[in-house]
């Protein structure tokens, strides 16, 4: 506690000493011109995110939340997704806190409808191929602002803009030198008594009391120059970022894998305990023959070659070595150029590059249960007692082979954690011509080429086929020798001693460890042309309006292709290769009609419409998308707006052409164990026989197997989105802006899978033949897991057009500032009230609503209310500021405890509710010399712990017994940065 007090005191003193700062930010700005190059006069031609119309004074009719560069600096953000994840409209998706199963990318999920249902743009153009979208590609120090637009925008931008658009507006006109360097780290105080008691009670080592980790270093430079009498500009940037990992061992909440403890009648989860994996460091064995004790056998902990009956005390704590925050090394570079040949021709282009390397790390590999290993009954590495239990007294010592499930995890040196080395090398090139060919008539012809190269190497993983060969051992001249060495089929084989704790030799581990490699190549080409006409230049306007009718006409052709290759070992382990592509040709138009302007009660009344026709190579029929919007400003104080959009999302390449294969999913089989949670009749509906009931092995580490893959018969999703709102800017309070916006989005025939958890709960609860038919149990023993496509039991969960998704709610934005005489004080807040978040898994099945719920099918918490509010004081000379940020995440309830048949599961008394979370962040900045600014900050000032959640409740990006991204897992973090511009 003394150390924590010193840290807080030093942070507060430093913040106060830094007296003078840069202006804070305009996070909740929602008036239309934030999305364009707005001018004070209103005469400059601008383009707004959410429309291709470029006219003087145009404003957005869609709700827009804008985050500016000052806010990014105040957060000390080096990865842009962390900035977006704080917004209440955003649900965290793939990020640096996801380790097991990560592909190394960072994504954004708008309105919790999925990261593949919002379109990410850079300066109004697509970022990268949709399935390869990666926010690591964004140079955060070059960001002028980020526009987050709610509502379908397919009529404007094409497929994928279902829930909305995120447009990163980068600075591309620097005339000078800009530099920025920042260093940060986390300093968490592990004082969670309940979690520490669980860890110690299980015999595990508790987390360090005061770890300092997660260090971040970020350095950037940009150079730019005007030329040709300011008719041209070239701007280039370079950046380097290095992030150190955080181990789950170093946080109380994640020091062990938490399991629920069920008790009482009826049974309910009343507490949490340290669990773990039955694939343990001592070695578990379940012979695949009759007469075996429930649960099988385990090597003793003392290292003797003796088997005892397995019990949960043998479970392995796989959590400590897992990454809570991945390490990352990123190099970025890019350039923007433009040159005006004459008013009719401006040449422009850009180049962006990224080389990003990250590692995910999880517990050491094992001979995992589910793969049917085979051991000869006269294996000299076994004791006589082990041979008798494995093979039976009659076969023990003979040359007979016995199949067996093994859960043996070497953990002592030289065993190493599994590491997934992930590398993304991305290139993006764009260029074109634009200009004004006549008064009010502008054109833009451009091309965009992007390539994503993906390389993955999975290290320190045990190859089950090699392990199987290493388990068939004979004595040759008194030396244990692999049979594959004797017969010459594998001369490199080394015998593997799994019959005692610490048995495997270094040579044996070197043999069974076999890295796998995969690589991918994702390409996108976009050719586009637009012609924009301002009818006002030619008197084309309505009689009550001063502005003319504006229109844009355009064509676009887009091609995407994907190749994904795997080496022979990865293929043998079930990885599937993908090769495919598609193209789409589109025509579109958009028209804005000012109806009344500058009349009593009609400062503005306008209509906007848009239409796009898309012809996909993967679809026999053309697809139409369209929109209609209205805006009415009765005075300069109030503006009302509303819109309807028909949007689509065409299936991406992975969804179309992804090969089908098994994969892990966090859930448990209710028909497993000696006392199954489900009845015999319920389990028989899932394919369990009477003989198997009560003898089925539980899914290890609550990781059952699903069967996933693509489907070339997929149809595009369709969405209807409605928005309506108001913007209040009263003259009596010149610096007050209040916005309220309603959103309603419904997606039909959404492309997805039937969640394995839903299939299990529906079959058990209702016996519905459709859901029960998706069970494919291992016929030999009834398990729902396995090692590969030929031996696994699984639940089918392949991609298909399913039911519908819907969400609605209200966004509130407030900006206010006042000059106090002692400096300027400003408040900016953005909040979201969630009215509904419903899913209909299949037509006619009924819907479930995840509003205010978490866990199971609902996944990450979806609170009814979230907000972020910033309070900033700026000195009278404008050279310094202190800013406090307040993040509020509402309480949520466990979806398993509901009465909804689609959601309910085991009753949870513990984890029945996740309480309200309040986070406070403090930042300050000061101009320390001309053109040089210093900033410091503390995020999660009070060092709040995330909630501890049982593994069986976690889903969709859960990690380390909590939901990172939603809740802070690093603890209190500090940063200091220096920026200069000359």
How is this structure best summarized?
The chain has 982 residues and is mainly β.
In words, what does this structure look like?
The structure is a single chain. A hairpin with an 8-residue loop joins strand 36 and strand 37 (737-748). The strands form eleven sheets. The protein has a 22-stranded antiparallel barrel. The radius of gyration is 30 Å and the shape is elongated. 10% of the residues lie in helices and 45% in strands. Mean pLDDT is 91; it is low at 1-43. The chain has 14 helices and 53 strands. By secondary structure, it is mainly beta. It has a domain at 2-252 and 323-361 and 422-457 and 519-655 and 714-753 and 798-981: Maltoporin, Chain A.
Helices, strands, pairings?
Layout: H1 2-17, E1 45-47, E2 54-56, E3 64-68, H2 69-75, H3 80-85, E4 90-92, E5 108-110, E6 118-122, E7 125-126, E8 143-150, H4 154-157, E9 164-170, E10 176-187, H5 193-201, E11 212-227, E12 232-243, E13 246-247, E14 258-263, E15 268-274, E16 284-287, E17 297-299, E18 307-309, E19 323-325, E20 327-342, E21 345-364, E22 373-376, H6 384-391, E23 401-407, E24 417-438, E25 441-459, H7 464-470, E26 473-476, E27 479-482, H8 483-486, H9 506-512, E28 516-534, E29 550-566, H10 568-572, E30 578-599, E31 602-616, E32 623-635, E33 638-649, H11 653-657, E34 661-666, H12 680-685, E35 703-708, E36 717-728, E37 737-748, E38 751-752, H13 756-766, H14 769-772, E39 775-776, E40 794-796, E41 800-801, E42 804-819, E43 824-840, E44 848-849, E45 853-854, E46 865-874, E47 880-889, E48 892-894, E49 907-908, E50 913-914, E51 917-929, E52 932-939, E53 973-981
Parallel strand pairs: 6-9, 15-49, 35-40, 45-48
Antiparallel strand pairs: 1-2, 3-8, 4-5, 6-7, 8-9, 10-11, 10-53, 11-12, 12-20, 13-19, 14-15, 16-17, 16-23, 17-18, 20-21, 21-24, 22-23, 24-25, 25-28, 26-27, 28-29, 29-30, 30-31, 31-32, 32-33, 33-36, 34-35, 36-37, 37-42, 38-41, 39-40, 42-43, 43-44, 43-46, 46-47, 47-51, 48-50, 51-52, 52-53
């Amino acid at each position: 506690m003394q150390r924590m007090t010193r840290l807080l005191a030093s942070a507060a003193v430093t913040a106060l000493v830094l007296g003078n700062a840069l202006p804070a930010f305009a996070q909740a700005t929602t008036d239309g011109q934030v999305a364009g190059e707005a001018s004070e006069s209103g005469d400059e031609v601008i383009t707004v995110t959410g429309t291709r119309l470029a006219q003087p004074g145009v404003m957005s009719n869609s709700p827009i939340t804008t985050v500016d560069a000052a806010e990014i600096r105040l957060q000390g953000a080096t990865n842009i997704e962390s900035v977006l994840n704080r917004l209440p409209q955003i649900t965290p998706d793939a990020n640096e806190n996801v380790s097991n199963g990560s592909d190394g990318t960072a994504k954004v999920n708008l309105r919790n409808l999925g990261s593949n249902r919002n379109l990410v743009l850079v300066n109004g153009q697509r970022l990268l191929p949709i399935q390869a979208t990666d926010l690591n590609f964004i140079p955060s120090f070059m960001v002028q602002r980020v526009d987050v637009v709610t509502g379908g925008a397919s009529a404007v931008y094409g497929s994928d803009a279902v829930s909305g658009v995120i447009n990163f507006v980068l600075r591309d006109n620097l005339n000078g030198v800009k530099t920025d360097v920042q260093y940060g780290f986390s300093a968490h105080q592990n004082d969670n008594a309940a979690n520490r008691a669980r860890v110690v009670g299980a015999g595990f080592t508790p987390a360090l009391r005061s770890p300092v980790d997660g260090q971040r270093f970020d350095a950037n430079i940009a150079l730019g120059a005007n030329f040709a009498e300011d008719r041209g500009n070239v701007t280039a940037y370079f950046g380097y970022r290095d992030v150190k990992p955080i181990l789950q061992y170093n946080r109380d909440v994640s020091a062990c894998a938490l399991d629920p403890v069920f008790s009482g009648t009826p049974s309910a989860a009343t507490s949490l305990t340290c669990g773990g994996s039955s694939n343990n460091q001592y070695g578990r064995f379940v012979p695949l023959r009759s007469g075996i004790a429930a649960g099988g056998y385990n090597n003793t902990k003392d290292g003797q070659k003796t088997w005892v009956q397995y019990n949960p005390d043998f479970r392995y704590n796989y959590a400590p070595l897992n990454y809570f925050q991945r390490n990352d090394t990123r190099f970025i570079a890019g350039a923007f150029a433009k040159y005006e040949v004459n008013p009719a021709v401006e040449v422009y282009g850009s180049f962006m590059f990224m080389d990003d390397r990250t590692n995910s790390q999880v517990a050491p590999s094992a001979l995992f249960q589910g793969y049917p290993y085979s051991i000869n009954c006269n294996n000299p590495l076994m004791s006589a007692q082990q041979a008798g239990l494995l093979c039976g007294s009659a076969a023990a010592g003979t040359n007979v082979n016995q199949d067996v499930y093994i859960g043996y995890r070497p953990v002592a040196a030289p065993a190493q954690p599994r590491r997934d080395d992930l590398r993304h090398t991305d290139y993006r090139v764009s260029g074109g011509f634009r200009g004004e060919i006549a008064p009010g008539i502008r054109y833009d012809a451009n091309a965009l080429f992007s390539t994503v190269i993906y390389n993955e190497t999975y290290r320190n993983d045990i190859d089950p086929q090699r392990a199987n060969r290493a388990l068939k051992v004979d004595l040759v001249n008194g030396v244990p020798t692999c049979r594959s060495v004797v017969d010459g089929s594998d001369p490199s084989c080394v015998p593997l001693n799994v019959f005692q704790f610490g048995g495997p030799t270094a040579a044996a581990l070197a043999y069974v460890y076999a890295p796998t490699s995969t690589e991918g190549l994702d390409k996108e080409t976009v050719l586009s042309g637009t012609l924009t006409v301002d009818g006002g230049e030619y008197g084309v306007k309505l009689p009550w309006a001063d502005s003319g009718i504006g229109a844009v006409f355009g064509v676009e052709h887009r091609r995407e292709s994907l190749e994904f290759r795997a080496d022979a070992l990865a293929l043998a382990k079930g990885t599937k290769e993908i090769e495919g592509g598609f193209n789409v040709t589109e025509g579109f138009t958009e028209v804005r009609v000012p109806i009344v302007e500058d009349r009593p009660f009609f400062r503005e009344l306008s209509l906007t419409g848009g239409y796009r026709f898309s012809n996909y190579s993967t679809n026999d029929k053309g697809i139409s998308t369209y929109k209609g919007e209205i805006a009415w400003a009765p005075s300069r104080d109030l503006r009302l707006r509303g819109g309807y959009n028909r949007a689509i999302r065409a299936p991406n390449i992975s969804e179309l052409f992804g090969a089908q294969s098994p994969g892990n999913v966090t859930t448990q089989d209710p028909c497993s164990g000696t006392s199954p949670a489900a009845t015999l009749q319920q389990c028989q509906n899932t394919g369990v026989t009477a003989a198997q009931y009560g003898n089925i092995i539980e899914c290890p580490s609550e990781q059952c197997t699903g069967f996933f893959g693509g489907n070339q018969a997929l149809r595009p999703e369709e969405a209807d989105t409605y928005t309506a709102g108001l913007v209040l800017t009263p003259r009596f309070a010149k610096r007050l802006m209040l916005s309220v916006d309603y959103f309603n989005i419904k997606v039909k025939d959404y492309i997805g899978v039937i969640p394995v958890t839903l299939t299990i709960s529906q079959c058990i609860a209702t016996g519905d033949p459709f859901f029960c038919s998706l069970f494919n149990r291992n016929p030999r023993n009834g398990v729902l897991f396995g090692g590969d496509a030929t031996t696994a039991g699984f639940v089918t969960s392949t991609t298909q057009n399913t039911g519908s998704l819907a969400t609605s709610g209200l966004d509130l934005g407030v900006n206010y500032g006042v000059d106090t005489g002692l400096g300027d004080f400003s408040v900016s807040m953005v909040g979201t009230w969630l009215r509904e978040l419903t899913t209909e898994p299949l037509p006619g099945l009924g819907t479930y609503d995840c509003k205010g719920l978490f866990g199971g099918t609902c996944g990450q918490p979806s609170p009814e209310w979230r907000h972020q509010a910033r309070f900033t004081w700026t000195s009278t000379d404008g050279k310094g500021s202190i800013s406090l940020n307040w993040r509020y995440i509402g309480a949520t309830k466990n979806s398993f405890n509901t009465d909804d048949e689609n959601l309910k599961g085991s009753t949870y008394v513990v984890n029945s509710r996740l309480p309200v979370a309040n986070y406070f962040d403090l930042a300050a900045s000061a101009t320390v010399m001309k053109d040089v600014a210093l900033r410091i900050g503390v995020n999660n000032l009070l060092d709040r712990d995330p909630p501890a959640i049982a593994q069986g409740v976690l889903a969709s990006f859960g990690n380390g017994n909590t939901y990172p991204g939603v809740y802070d897992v690093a603890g209190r973090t500090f940063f200091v940065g220096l920026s200069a511009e000359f």
